[in-house]
Specification:
This protein is mainly alpha-helical. It has 15 helices and 3 strands. Helix content is about 55%, strand content about 5%.
Length: about 375
């Protein structure tokens, strides 16, 4: 009977899936202590074939999709999937509170909040623009949006009617409709039950391909933004917990290639160049400030040594006027005058104290009560 079932599966499903179907049946028999000759049965399994559905939507494909529709929700959804790389199944759970602003008009997205699979990804300026436009349309239609409102809602006649999130099936239908309208399925045939480019997963494959092939991207952080665990580094999921700012710094490197519109891509490239320039200027300024602080410390130490030596020499010559312990208590460095002296020679004399050394050498020390 089991052998007949395997033969039937070979005719109905993908060769790559037979083992999955049979795993449950094998577990059932083993749980009930029914011994079968599984080695003999597995010889009936078909040879695995190359998987289909491995292609991605190209930037040009997505551009055609967006040009084929005028619907704001459809545009926002396509942009969102292309920019964030989230799975279709994450859309129904997303709420307004899961979206936070980031620099350069980008947004951070917390996916699967509160679950073990929670992770953070981002959308760039272009996608954020269409998301904001879609949300503004809902507000203008009368919807009262709060932090618990769904990010993408079902269609409505009037905005004030009960708000329901788009479910998984509806998300797939909307994507399929846009792809079909764009003519991207014309002439395509399924192989092993799949198109070469999967309807929804084609966006995720594009995101992954672009981000992981961007120069300078840390693969482990790219995987984090995909919601993947890094199998080659088992403990990374537990101990490597980068902040949103760290992840966003990596995401920014891929923004130009993730952007769909050519003008938006050029703007993204300019934004990155401006930011890099700003960061470089800040680093240079930090270096200059550090050099200035080192000069200040060195000057304070040099002056302190000069004054202490002057004091020691004077005490040795005038033991009746001051004891060594009294001299040690004379905290010259702590006085405001000492700090002002250091700043004066640092700014007005570029740290050159040659004349001051002579003045200290010729100075006369006087003692006063208290």
């Amino acid at each position: 009977m089991v052998e007949d079932y395997v033969m039937m599966l070979k005719k109905r499903i993908s060769p790559n899936t037979v083992n999955t179907y049979m795993a449950g049946i094998q577990a059932f028999f083993e749980t009930n202590d029914i011994d079968l000759k599984w080695k003999k049965i597995r010889r009936l399994y078909p040879a695995k074939v190359k998987k289909t559905g491995g292609h991605m939507w190209t930037t040009q494909d997505i551009k055609v999709m967006l040009e084929s529709t005028r619907d704001t929700r459809q545009k926002a959804l396509i942009h969102f999937l292309a920019a964030s790389g989230v799975r279709r199944g994450a859309i129904p759970e997303l709420k307004i509170k899961h979206v936070t602003p980031m620099p350069n008009n980008c947004k951070a997205i917390v996916v699967y909040e509160g679950s073990l699979e929670e992770y953070t990804t981002f959308i760039h300026t272009e996608a954020a623009y269409w998301l904001d436009k879609y949300l503004d349309q809902r507000r203008n239609d009368g919807e009262c949006i709060n932090e618990n409102s769904p990010l993408f809602r079902k269609s409505y006649q009037i905005g004030i009617q009960k708000v329901l999130p788009m479910n998984d099936e509806l998300v797939l239908k909307v994507i399929w409709y846009v792809i079909k309208k764009a003519g991207l399925r014309a002439g395509q045939q399924k192989r092993s039950g799949r198109f070469d480019t999967q309807t929804d997963h084609g966006f995720r494959k594009r995101w992954n391909t672009i981000v992981e092939n961007t120069n300078g991207i840390k693969i482990i952080l790219a995987e984090k933004m995909m919601g993947h665990s890094v199998k080659s580094i088992p403990m990374a999921q537990i101990y490597n917990l980068p902040t949103a700012d760290v992840l966003f710094k990596e995401y920014q490197k891929a923004i130009p290639e993730l952007t769909i519109d050519d003008s938006s891509r050029k703007q993204a490239e300019l934004d990155i160049l401006r930011q890099e320039k700003s960061e470089l200027e800040k680093k240079n300024q930090d270096i200059e400030n550090m050099k200035e602080e080192i000069k200040r410390i060195n000057l304070r130490n040099e002056l302190s040594d000069l004054l202490k030596q002057k004091m020691i020499d004077w005490v040795e010559k005038n033991p009746d006027n001051m004891t060594s312990s009294q001299a040690a208590k004379a905290d010259i460095i702590a006085s405001n005058k000492f700090g002002e002296l250091v700043e004066h020679y640092l700014k007005d004399h570029q740290g050159n104290i040659s004349d001051l050394k002579q003045r200290i050498a010729n100075a006369i020390i006087e003692t006063r009560e208290n």
